[in-house]
Amino acid sequence: MEREKRYLAYKSYNPSRVIRFGTTMHNCLAFNVLKSRQWQETQMDDWDIFYADTGWIHENLPYSGFASGGLRLNEWQKVNHFPNHVELTRKDLMVKNLKRMKKNLEKEGRLEDAKELDFFPQTYHMPSEASLFIRKFKELRQNGENQTWIMKPIGRAQGKGIFLVNKLSQIEAWLKERGSQKAENCCYEDYVCQRYISDPMLICGRKFDLRIYALCLSYVPLKVYLYRDGFARFSNTRFSMNKDDLSNNYIHLTNHSIQKQDASYNSKVTDLKWPIGSLRKHMSATYGPDVANKVFDDLQQLIINSLLSVQKVIINDRHCFELYGYDVMFSEDLKPWLIEVNASPSMSADTDSDRKLKMGLLDDMLSVIDIEQKWSCFGKTPPRVGGFDVIYDENGPTKPHSNSSIHSFLGCANDRERQLMQLQKEWESCNAKVMSGAVSQENLDHYVNVSKTTSKSLHSSAFR
Ligand SMILES: Nc1ncnc2c1ncn2[C@@H]1O[C@H](COP(=O)(O)OP(=O)(O)OP(=O)(O)O)[C@@H](O)[C@H]1O
Q: Which of 43, 45, 158, 342 is deepest in the core (most CB within 10 A)?
């Protein structure tokens, strides 16, 4: 019965028609990529896919659901954000959800699983948790612990409004200033106060963080792809924990938007971005391949766990998908730390390699959505599409909490064009047979058993 339904759905869906898209974002890389696929822009609401900024989502897909004034979408329509993505992408909410998941696991006695969530630095919401923070600060001071904290506004980006503190008086001054801003009805914002990672892993004496891309297709069941490419963003100045340098953003904040402003930075001489593959090779050469593989598997597990922590809170609208930009740092013991998750990771490109990476990323993301749409009629989708590998599929072979079942391909060879061509070929032959009636319902699965072939290529193209 299920097979028959899928067969009929496939026959009635015309997989070869031109895809229509709507967008609020013109003059950007995403728009160029949508056009380069020969997809057609539409101003009407007859789009198949809508590529929107988060403001559009909050207006058109309000949290309270479609029934209360939001858009009513057709079965096949897809939008690029979940309505309440902020549960993961706002600094304070992300930590709140991670803390809650950890607590629940501890209550259930799953202490090993709870320990796996120790990948976010201790964080307090300010000012609501100011007294808790002050108590903690005093306790640490009594134990003679040197402490540095980083204050970050919850809703800003590009390092704006961030500063480091190492004295209680600095926090008290901030609280006082915020109090008077509030009283005078001036602009004021909430912050998170987070333990500063003061022993970061350094390369050539420089601090760096990673930008990694994860594509979530659904929260229930959770289905996630991870992109093989990404990059490390370095500071231009050597790292130091010298007290006099605490206010020097060029040392402490690795945002490229900040580093570019450093007067001593010359883009023609220094490239502050490293492909993630180079970082993996560097780790492999320095610490050995086993250590590097473990670090990258841990990194992948961190992403899965962060998504699991919001699985029950995010409104799982079947029309939505989301490409997240993860910011992660390593401490010198090679432990990955989650810094934040971005709902609209920057798609601006300074260099040719940046542009190539981001165009490939966006194009592959659209391929995943397209393929999921077409191939889901058969109840099967490939484990790899271009540079994206499935890392978690609650309904598929990559089962929950079996992190040994799939290793991380992050930073591994990304022969995305060849892989996409192979998928396209398989798709065309399968499609032609089904449409001409040469394939019956009974042997349909045989022709769409793409998983086997693609998983073969998945294993041969990696260097691990
Ligand atoms: N807990 C921390 N310990 C050490 N460094 C940190 C910590 N949190 C943030 N940083 C540094 O500050 C930078 C900016 O932090 P974060 O990404 O949270 O801010 P943002 O303004 O939202 O930046 P983005 O534009 O990437 O969204 C990071 O790239 C990292 O270099």
A: 342
Question: Could you tell me which of 74, 88, 102 has the C-alpha nearest to residue 13?
Answer: 74
Q: Which of 253, 332, 348 to mutate to test the pocket of ligand 1 (most atoms within 8 A of CB)?
A: 253
pLDDT in tens, 271-291: 789 999 999 999 999 999 999
Q: What is the pTM of this model?
A: 0.91
Query: Atom 8 of ligand 1 has which residue's CA nearest to it?
Result: 339
Nearest to 346 by CA among 210, 129, 92, 158: 158
Ligand 1 contact via 192 beta carbon (within 6 Å):
no
Taking the C-alpha atoms of residue 139 and residue 168, their distance in angstroms, rounded to an integer, is 12
Please enumerate in sequence order all residues whose Cβ is within 8 A of that of 379, keeping only pairs 6 or more positions apart, or say none.
2, 6
127 contacts 115 by C-beta, under 8 angstroms? no
DSSP 3-state of 36: helix
- Residues 166 and 246 sit within 8 Å (Cβ to Cβ): yes
Phi and psi of 114, rounded to 5°?
A: -65, -40
**From CA 78, how far away is CA 190, in angstroms rounded?**
33
- The answer to whether the CB of 194 is under 6 A from ligand 1 is yes
**Per-residue pLDDT tens over the stretch 92-130:** 999 999 999 999 999 999 999 999 999 999 999 999 999
Report the atom number in ligand 1 closest to the C-alpha of 159. 21
Q: What pLDDT score does 377 carry?
A: 66
Residue whose CA is at the smallest distance from ligand 1 atom 12 = 253
% of the chain exceeding 90 in pLDDT: 63
For 108-255, where are the alpha helices, taking DSSP H only?
Answer: 111-115, 130-142, 168-183, 249-252
Which residues is 459 bridged to in the sheet? none
Q: How far is the CA of 252 from the centre of ligand 1 (A)?
A: 9
- Bridge-based pairing of strands 149-153 and 40-41 is unpaired
360 CB under 6 A from ligand 1?
no
Domains defined along the chain, listed by start: 2-79 (no CATH), 86-109+111-116+201-364+390-412 (3.30.470.20), 123-195 (3.30.1490.20)
Are the C-beta atoms of 130 and 168 separated by less than 8 Å?
no
| Ligand 1 pocket: which of 123, 234, 255, 259 to mutate (most atoms within 8 A of CB) | 255
| Long-range CB contact pairs, 458-463, < 8 A, 24+ | 458/383, 458/384, 458/389, 458/409, 461/412, 461/413, 461/415, 461/419, 462/409, 462/412, 462/413, 463/412, 463/413
Distance from C-alpha of 109 to C-alpha of 99, rounded to nearest angstrom: 15
CA distance 4 to 10: 10
The C-alpha atoms of residue 323 and residue 361 are separated, in whole angstroms, by 10
